[in-house]
Design brief:
The chain is an alpha/beta fold. The chain has a domain of about 250 residues: Enolase-like C-terminal domain (TIM Barrel). The chain is about 45% helix and about 15% strand. The strands form three sheets. It has a five-stranded parallel β-sheet, with helices on one face. Helix 11 links the parallel strand 6 and strand 7. Helix 8 packs antiparallel against helix 15 and helix 13 runs parallel beside helix 14. The protein binds magnesium ion.
Length: about 425
């Protein structure tokens, strides 16, 4: 019986801060990083995943992953698919580690890292990409993955089952559409706050030429500068291209309302993370005050319980789940199904390293097996660092192409794992 025999964690960092890629009002100098996990087996496959961080602290994230990964050494590969629901629950219910959260921050993301690496193994065993693996599972098996603890007042197992059963008959048709057309993407590439006007305009023009119909701009450092940049981009792309903005949590609630009203003349499709991700009622207050401009949030929402409250409170019009913020694929399925119940579209967050590669699978699963294809779903795309991935994101006609290679998406090329290792890799050595 083949088993998980061990694991390795690697502290991988990309020096993106030098070019200001990823810069926004809250995060002026991120070094996109991956707390990287490899699950080793005595078969010829290994399970890969990463937790996205932005530099310092990536080592702590690696340590936390290692602590949890130890608990799954010895798991048999043949029973993984049946056991993954229970393993996911066990990883977040380890009471001593749970104390550090509960269900938030480093230990929770570590649980996600382990769960996602296990899914990578399952996909490789079954020779399917993750979106297909999940879309081929029975509604009952999918419901088994969900931890209903603390969300059963908003969604019961029976309701989740009925949502997934309703989607079952359309799976074949939805898969065909996915394979033919992919999933619509939007781009944040022109929008980073550290870019000059020239770079921003050039990238905005390129985005439109590539067929993107939604561009996202970072805002929130200076109102005067925001008005200048947003008007400039609006003039550059014309009125037919949708424009969203993202404040990355910098405003207080009243400040957010004032600021958004002062920039909404450029016609904003949504305003993202206007305030603290923990401020459920603050988001709801903002959403009410700035309507018809809509609020999007989720990349920093810790877990399904926070999402539950945001859905109940009317805090958002678009739910932006993240592949590595929560406890992995299992919890994201809970979130996707809950969003379906509340009628809120899931538009995943992907600004980071490897996130495009990972979230695409979740959005594709949603489009095939849960809410189908609709015009409210757009998946974030940022054009950074894809060259390091074994199965890199592919965009065609401004849409994500469905990957067909087995795996969950996070596997980084072995040479990149050597070169970008912190701080022994050649990229970091040469910077000392
Ligand atoms: Mg954002």
């Amino acid at each position: 019986m083949a088993k998980i025999t061990g694991f390795k964690t690697l502290d991988i960092r990309f020096p993106t801060s030098t070019e200001k890629h990823g810069s926004d009002a809250m995060n002026p100098d991120p070094d996109y990083s991956a707390a990287y996990l490899i699950l080793e087996t005595d078969s010829n496959i290994s399970g890969h995943s990463l937790v996205f961080t932005i530099g310092r602290g990536n080592d702590l994230q690696c340590n936390s992953i290692a602590q949890l990964a130890e608990t799954i050494v010895g798991e048999e590969l043949s029973t993984l698919e049946n056991r993954i629901g229970q393993i996911g629950k066990d990883l977040v219910r380890d009471s001593q580690i749970r104390w550090l959260g509960p269900e938030k921050g480093i230990p929770h993301m570590a649980a996600g890292g382990v769960v996602n690496a296990l899914w990578d193994l399952i996909c490789k065993i079954n020779k399917k990409p993750l979106w297909k693996q999940l879309s081929d599972m029975s509604p009952e098996a999918l419901v088994d993955l969900i931890d209903f603890r603390h969300i059963s007042d908003a969604i019961t197992p029976e309701e989740a089952l009925s949502i997934l059963k309703k989607g079952k008959d359309s799976r074949e048709k939805n898969e065909k559409i996915l394979l033919d057309k992919g999933l619509p993407a939007y781009t944040t590439t022109p929008g980073w706050l550290g870019y000059s006007d020239e770079t921003m305009i050039r990238l905005a023009k390129e985005a439109v030429a590539e067929g993107f119909t939604l561009i996202k701009m970072k805002v929130g450092r200076s109102l005067e500068n925001d008005i200048h940049r947003l008007e400039l981009v609006r003039k550059t792309v014309g009125d037919d291209v949708r424009m969203a903005c993202d404040a990355n949590q910098v405003w207080d609630v009243n400040e957010a309302i004032k600021w958004i009203k002062a920039i909404s003349h450029v016609n904003l499709f949504w305003v993202e993370e206007p305030t603290s991700p923990d401020d459920i009622l603050g988001h709801a207050t903002i959403a009410k005050a700035i309507a018809p401009t809509r609020v999007a949030t989720g990349e920093h929402v810790h877990n399904r319980i926070m999402f539950k409250q945001m859905l109940q409170a009317g805090s958002m019009s678009f739910l932006q789940l993240d592949a590595t913020r929560t406890a992995g694929v299992n919890e994201n399925i809970a979130i996707i199904v809950m969003a379906a119940k509340f009628g809120i579209p899931v538009c995943p967050h992907a600004g980071g390293v490897g996130l495009c590669e990972m979230v695409a699978h979740l959005a594709m699963f949603d489009s095939v097996a849960v809410t189908g294809h609709h015009d409210k779903r757009v998946v974030e795309f940022v054009d950074h660092l894809h060259e390091h991935f074994v199965i890199p994101t592919q965009i065609k006609n401004a849409s994500y192409v469905a990957p067909l290679t087995p795996g969950a998406g996070a596997e980084i090329k072995s040479q990149s794992l050597i070169d970008y290792n912190y701080a022994t890799g050649s990229v970091w050595k040469s910077r000392k």
